[in-house]
Amino acid sequence: SGGNGAGGGGSMGDYMAQEDDWDRDLLLDPAWEKQQRKAETAANRICKVLAVNQENEHLMEDYERLASDLLEWIRRTIPWLEDRVPQKTMQEMQQKLEDFRDYRRVHKPPKVQEKCQLEINFNTLQTKLRLSNRPAFMPSEGRMVSDINNGWQHLEQAEKGYEEWLLNEIRRLERLDHLAEKFRQKASIHEAWTDGKEAMLKHRDYETATLSDIKALIRKHEAFESDLAAHQDRVEQIAAIAQELNELDYYDSHNVNTRCQKICDQWDALGSLTHSRREALEKTEKQLETIDQLHLEYAKRAAPFNNWMESAMEDLQDMFIVHTIEEIEGLISAHDQFKSTLPDADREREAPLAIHKEAQRIAESNHIKLSGSNPYTTVTPQIINSKWEKRDHALLEEQGKQQSNEHLRRQFASQANVVGPWIQTKMEEIGRISIEMNGTLEDQLNHLKRYERSIVDYKPNLDLLEQQHQLIQEALIFDNKHTNYTMEHIRVGWEQLLTTIARTINEVENQILTRDAKGISQEQMQEFRASFNHFDKDHGGALGPEEFKACLISLGYDVENDRQGDAEFNRIMSVVDPNHSGLVTFQAFIDFMSRETTDTDTADQVIASFKVLAGDKNFITAEELRRELPPDQAEYCIARMAPYQGPDAVPGALDYKSFSTALYGESDL
Fold this sequence. Notes:
Layout: H1 12-28, H2 30-81, H3 90-131, H4 145-194, H5 197-202, H6 211-247, H7 253-285, H8 293-316, H9 325-340, H10 342-365, H11 381-435, H12 441-457, H13 459-474, H14 487-518, H15 522-535, E1 542-543, H16 545-554, H17 563-576, E2 584-585, H18 586-595, H19 603-613, H20 622-628, H21 631-640, E3 642-643, E4 654-655, H22 656-663
Antiparallel strand pairs: 1-2, 3-4
């Protein structure tokens, strides 16, 4: 062993006995007290350094855990937002929209807070590392703040696309439902019209008919052919709607196609039967020589009126879809105009009836049997009256719905036009507070926290707006001319406001940490802020390279535009902007301004302190550490110190030099 150890060949027992003798001598030696005080000072320095290092390691572990949890949540959520598999029904898509609203209201806000807290923890940790002369913290690969921001941006993009897709799908399904209902309506009308037509066309009544009956049958058949031709357009419309439903991938296309095919097959059959019956009637007609001219005239007048009656019924039963008061008022106006034409239509109805009455008079005088009812149509004016009364009710009901929608629009716009400017005003006020020099940093911090409380207290206004927005979405309202603010604008602004106030408070807290650690006076801090603000021309809270260079020149630094000046400026920029972002924050500026005047711990100072505790030895033992340091910090050192490998090593010797350099990033811990 060395000069402070036992003799060359002594046992460990002899060595310990000799140390007991030295302890008794030291108690009587005045120099021992001086040495003891020196050891206490060294132990205190080591405790301070180790406490800082332990706290920093806890912050690093917290950051890694929070970053990992947040990135995992983002990884799980993005595939859900990118799922674009459409549902078949409006109810299923409405459930998806409800799930998305729950995500926005319940699941995402805590993650926004976690992301903000993670940035705050990261900034605080880096500040503490700089203040304790430790190397900057580098998170694990894939867990950098930039990685989290990239993941969050990907999440926001997926979220925006998902909401747009949901609304487009709802519009598409609404269009499909409307088309399907229109198909069913037209198909029902057509099927009702064709009911019994095949049996009528197959009836062989002409075989036993009189001459007058044959004439009536022929004219009736001509009227039917006119009616048949008039219905051709509806059949084409039914087929076109079915085709459109197929192209839009309607979920019940199979039943639609089956019904459409049945209608088309029946239509072909009616055409064939009509042609066959006409040939039979014309063949019989050749055997007859007289015809009742009144019946012919009646058929010509009744057929157009019958077609008009069928068309009017179809118009009255037609489906409609509107989104504004103006559209429904237009439909009501058109319906009123239709009702004004009814007196003329009634006169048109009376004309063939007069002809029919004349035919009956002639038939009676000539002993001709005629049907008492209209042989060409079963539609009566009473049916028309009933249809337009139903149309009145439907239009008025829709008008009430659109008035309710307009009220919802105005209600949302009134609230949004207050909340939106309030958020913008608060953002501007926070920006002014962060660069003003009114009062101390504590005054600024208290001012910002009052702002934070006022922002939190304002949250019910945002909740009310969310409720109003939900009512608008449930009513399927897609536009609002009364405001330029959308709910998405308000949400983004609110999240930015919460993040900005939290980040600004954290910046001021870090400035307080720097001021206290560096011993900067309030006057110096205000001078730093005044210089920084003077060159921060755009009031963005950061200096660009040219602005920072001008500031340094004004402070007397030799960074003019020559080779030496550029080299010095590049050196300084590497200190204040280690990430090469091209911006110098106020925190980095005050760190730089106070760096050269502050007494900070170094690795050499810690090594010297350990040497004192070790009695000038090149190593230290676990017993010495436990004797001189608090228990938790002694165990911290023992667990991390490597075994000492020098020639003067004893069993259990620990290497305090490599441990001290590792604390400051000069070697691996």
